[in-house]
From TrEMBL:
Residues 254-267 have a biased composition (Pro residues). Belongs to the AfsR/DnrI/RedD regulatory family. Pfam families: BTAD, TPR_12, Trans_reg_C. The keyword DNA-binding applies. GO terms for biological process: phosphorelay signal transduction system; regulation of DNA-templated transcription. InterPro entries: AfsR-DnrI-RedD_regulator, BTAD, OmpR/PhoB-type_DNA-bd, P-loop_NTPase, Sig_transdc_resp-reg_C-effctor, TPR-like_helical_dom_sf, TPR_rpt, WH-like_DNA-bd_sf. This is DNA-binding SARP family transcriptional activator/tetratricopeptide (TPR) repeat protein. It comes from the Bacteria. Residues 1-91 form the OmpR/PhoB-type domain. SUPFAM superfamilies: C-terminal effector domain of the bipartite response regulators, P-loop containing nucleoside triphosphate hydrolases, TPR-like. GO terms for molecular function: ADP binding; DNA binding. Residues 242-271 are annotated as: Disordered.
């Protein structure tokens, strides 16, 4: 039976087109509590809290079970099922109007075609039948209603924006007049109403409405309208012709990037003809435009060659996927890391598809909707490698039948086959002929032919297991003068009975134990220690500190391990271990090394990463107040980094390892202090590179560590920097909560410096929320506090911040005075602050019409930013530099500045800023 569910109005269900009586309000609330997370298991505790609130009655669980029992026969095969720990409404998200609404809105925001966006948003809003969850009481239902109310309002505003771009101005006036009257302080609605009035030829009414709005805001809120609204007001006064000539849909939109994420094709691939044919048959069996997406689930034991099979096939059919190929290692069976959260993988896909990290929606459902919208109707290949289970893969499935998905896993992923039509492709051991070809390709036909009996014994012992064959062949190649019979005897003596076992993993361990015995004592020690190192790979200096060896000796050991296929050098001086080999190495570390040796090695590695990260951060942000921590151990040698470029390169290479170390230490309470210290050292890099979700993750871990063992000043720091991080991903309420907590703790302890820092962070948060007046108030408070601390760089920074917010509010005389004072204190001493002050002064000079002075300030700021490697600030100044050039009629110079800004914004994945500057370039072209 097909079921559909309505949450955007009174909670209802229809099964096979007929309405179902869902019973009393609480029973309907149970269904709603599961439907909002359709397709996911909701814990019993969560359902109880949603239905009865934070203090449920004693028999709430029993009553819940009764409600579920009554609902099941009403919904039939719609799938209200019990799962370990909770309940699941096992239906497609599209069967729930709330999810359909969000999917349509995500598609609309992803498309560049306004006509398509208008149709999608119109369809989404048709699903709204009044107040969400109507008739349900309780805090949870009310919170969901409020949340959806905001989403609906945003969709309505998005639709108006689209219609305005399509030229529908006059026919929107009545609708927007009513909405502006109902939301008199909503600046977005007000801006849309002003624009519609202009499009309708009624600019005088637009100016009058702005006057009334400003009077209301000043009287009730004590603040001026925001920057965007004030700029629109000025454009109306200036009779800007662009206000009456809507932009054409998609004009100036750059082409979406085509991701090419496949790792290199495997060398010397042998056999697998049946499996390759099955994959191709699946692709060929679905005609273009068909209704079924091809999903192939490649299953088999670890080390059996699943990934090589997937990559070999993908590279041979890459022409079938002209719109891109996405690849992710889900780490489902990684020995040192937990399985990757699908939202992490999803964010990687969104990055590859060109989505600005700052514009990724925080809600996981919205992220899935955005991803599926971006690949809809495109021919894209998605390779999800090393999956733990079907639940890890489902959010990564496109919704379009034009896409193809390859999934590899050690599990058969039955749920993926039954729930999503995946075609299972089982990978087993190689045939005798294929295995013989592997040895022949590696050892040469003459050597294989010279010792047929020994080759037969090697093949029998390896039993077609690809990794076992690779190890045997590697040993033989490393010792070309050794007879193969000797190798066959060694392998025979090394637990041949296990190699013949039905469990390939056990057989692989036998082969690895044989390979391990070929190592010297030093090589075996390093191999075992590598199993302890968190992260997907490791660089030479980190291995040297882990093993407490000189670089030369470390390189020699790694070369020996690489020769035996125990490690792989994927890029110069960086090594990777297959996850099974790494698990085996970790087992050896616990078996052969003492706890003291293991603890010392991990401590050296953590010190290596922490102190190198700290040194790199000092290069990127030299005037940032440092934190205090112990000196590195005497036998730990952190990297020496020459300049900001080297620091940025090191952070980029080690980012995933640093995140993995942070996760590992989060579970080790004896090293909790290192968690927040690593988070601090990573903060500047993650912010400047736009890895904002990573910043949130490390500071969540850092705050947890600080709460366990941190001093009050550390808790202040953790709350403050987590507050800043969540601001950048749009979680403004959480940001304010953390920053307020930081401020309260700082006031309790009398930490004046921490209070100043926190006020400065609150100012930045307020600015991002569009509250310039509030930002100014916090900046003034920060300045007052810094003045008594004899910290010239921070005082200058705060002076410039005060001036900047005053400039945004139009108080240019005060702004110039503060920014000139900041420049005077910073000049020649604190170059980052000096550059920032010059940038602010350039903005002020331009706003008051002194364009020549603006050019001078901006160019001096650029020189300083470039000299000190501040690539993040450089495009902002280039963007602003273009405006005085244009005002002076120097259009070629303006165009050159803006073209540079666009290139830098795009390189930093700052899509919204890049789009804004491209609009400036388009305007130059139109005027020309």
């Amino acid at each position: 039976m097909a079921a559909v569910f309505t949450l955007l109005g009174e909670v209802t269900a229809h099964v096979d087109g007929r309405p179902v009586d869902l019973g009393p309000a609480r029973q309907r609330c149970v269904l709603a509590a599961l439907a909002v997370d359709a397709g996911q298991v909701v814990s019993v505790e969560r359902v109880v809290e949603r239905v009865w609130g934070a203090e449920p009655p004693r028999r709430a669980r029993a009553t819940l079970h009764s409600y579920v029992s009554r609902l099941r026969p009403l919904l039939g095969t719609a799938g209200l099922v019990r799962r370990p720990g909770g309940y699941l409404l096992d239906v497609d998200e599209a069967a729930v109007d709330l999810h359909r609404f969000r999917e349509l809105c995500a598609q609309a925001r992803a498309t560049a075609a306004d006509e398509h966006a208008e149709a999608l948003l119109t369809e989404a809003l048709r699903l709204c039948h009044g107040e969400a969850l109507a008739g349900l009481g309780g805090d949870w239902a009310q919170a969901e209603r409020d949340r959806f109310g905001g989403e609906r309002s945003a969709a309505e505003c998005d639709l108006v924006d689209v219609r305005l771009r399509l030229g529908q101005g006059g026919n929107l006036v009545a609708e927007l007049s009513a909405r502006a009257a109902g939301c008199p302080l909503d600046e977005r609605v007000a801006a849309q109403y002003l624009l519609a009035l202009c499009r309708a030829g009624r600019p005088t009414e637009a100016l009058e409405h702005y006057r009334r709005l400003r009077t209301l805001m000043v009287g009730e809120l004590g603040t001026e309208p925001g920057t965007a609204l004030r700029q629109l007001h000025q454009r109306i006064i200036d009779d800007d012709p662009a206000l009456t000539a809507p932009a054409r849909s998609g004009e100036g939109t750059p082409p979406a990037p085509v991701p090419r994420q496949l790792p290199p094709a495997p060398p010397r691939f042998t056999g697998r003809s049946d499996e390759l044919a099955a994959l191709t048959a699946g692709l060929d069996g679905t005609a273009p435009g068909g209704r079924t997406m091809v999903i192939s689930a490649i299953a088999g034991a670890g080390g059996i060659g699943k990934t090589w099979l997937a990559l070999h096939w993908a590279h041979h059919h890459v022409d079938r996927f002209p719109d891109g190929q996405l690849f992710v290692d889900l780490q489902g069976f990684s020995p040192t890391a937990t399985p990757m959260d699908p939202t992490t993988a999803l964010r990687g896909f969104l990055d590859a598809l060109g989505v600005d990290p700052r514009s990724v929606p925080p809600d996981p459902h919205a992220q899935v909707g955005l991803y599926r919208s971006l690949v809809a109707d495109k021919r894209v290949l998605v390779v999800a490698d090393n999956a733990r289970n079907a639940e890890q893969v489902v959010p990564l499935l496109p919704g379009s039948p034009t896409c193809t998905v390859l999934v590899t896993s050690r599990h058969r992923l039955t749920g993926l086959a039954t729930g999503h039509g995946a075609r299972p492709v089982r990978v087993d051991v190689l045939s005798d002929a294929e295995a013989r070809q592997v040895l022949g390709d590696r050892l040469g036909a003459e050597r294989v032919a010279a010792e047929p009996d020994a080759v037969a014994e090697l093949l029998r012992c390896c039993n077609g297991f690809p990794l076992a064959l690779a190890i045997v062949a590697g040993r033989a190649c490393a010792n070309p003068g050794f007879p193969l019979a000797g190798l066959a005897d060694e392998l025979h003596d090394a637990r041949l009975d296990v190699l013949d076992d039905d469990n390939p993993t056990a057989g692989l361990r036998a082969v690895l134990s044989w390979s391990h015995r070929a190592l010297t004592a030093e090589q075996a020690r390093v191999f075992a220690l590598l199993g302890l190192a968190p992260g997907p790979d490791i660089g030479l200096p980190a291995v040297a500190d882990l093993a407490d060896l000189p670089d030369t000796a470390t390189r020699s050991v790694l070369r020996a391990l690489e020769d035996l296929h125990l490690v792989q050098q994927r890029s110069p001086a960086r090594w990777h271990m297959h996850d099974l080999i790494k698990l085996y190495a970790a087992d050896l570390a616990h078996q052969d090394l003492s706890e003291r040796e293991r603890d010392g090695a991990l401590s050296r590695l953590v010190d290596h990463y922490l102190h190198t990260a700290h040194a790199a951060d000092r290069l990127l942000h030299p005037h940032r107040p440092p934190i205090r921590f112990d000196e590195p151990r005497s036998n730990c040698r952190p990297r020496h980094l020459a300049d900001t470029g080297a620091a940025l390169d090191w952070f980029t290479a080690e980012r995933h390892n640093l995140l993995a170390v942070t996760r590992r230490l989060s579970d080790d309470h004896s090293r909790s202090v290192r968690v927040w210290q690593l988070a601090w050292a990573l903060d500047t890099f993650l912010y400047r590179q736009g890895h904002l979700h990573d910043a949130v993750a490390v500071w969540r871990a850092g705050l947890a560590a600080a709460d366990r063992h941190g001093t009050p000043d550390v808790r202040v720091l953790a709350h403050r920097l987590l507050g800043a991080a969540v601001t950048y991903v749009g979680l403004h309420d959480e940001a304010v909560a953390h920053l307020s907590k930081a401020l309260a703790l700082a006031e309790e302890t009398g930490d004046v410096l921490a209070r100043a820092h926190t006020h400065r962070s609150l100012a930045q948060t307020a600015e991002r929320q569009g509250h310039e007046q509030r930002a100014l108030e916090h900046a003034v408070r920060a300045l007052d506090l810094y003045r008594g601390l004899d910290l010239p760089a921070l005082e200058a920074l705060a002076l410039n911040a005060v001036g900047w917010y005053e400039a945004l509010l139009g108080d240019y005389d005060r702004a110039r005075a503060h920014c000139e004072a900041a420049l005077d204190r910073a000049q020649g001493r604190h170059h980052e602050v000096e550059a920032a002050a010059l940038d602010s002064l350039g903005y002020i000079a331009h706003r008051i019409g002194d364009h020549t002075a603006a050019l001078d300030h901006y160019q001096r700021a650029l020189t300083l930013f470039r000299a000190h490697g501040d690539a993040y600030s450089e495009p902002d100044t280039l963007d602003r530099l273009g405006h005085p050039y244009r005002s002076l009629g120097q259009t070629d110079q303006a165009r050159h500045a803006w073209q540079q800004a666009v290139q830098l914004y795009e390189a930093q994945h700052r899509g919204e800023e890049a789009r804004r500057v491209r609009d400036h370039l388009d305007e130059l072209d139109r005027r020309a």
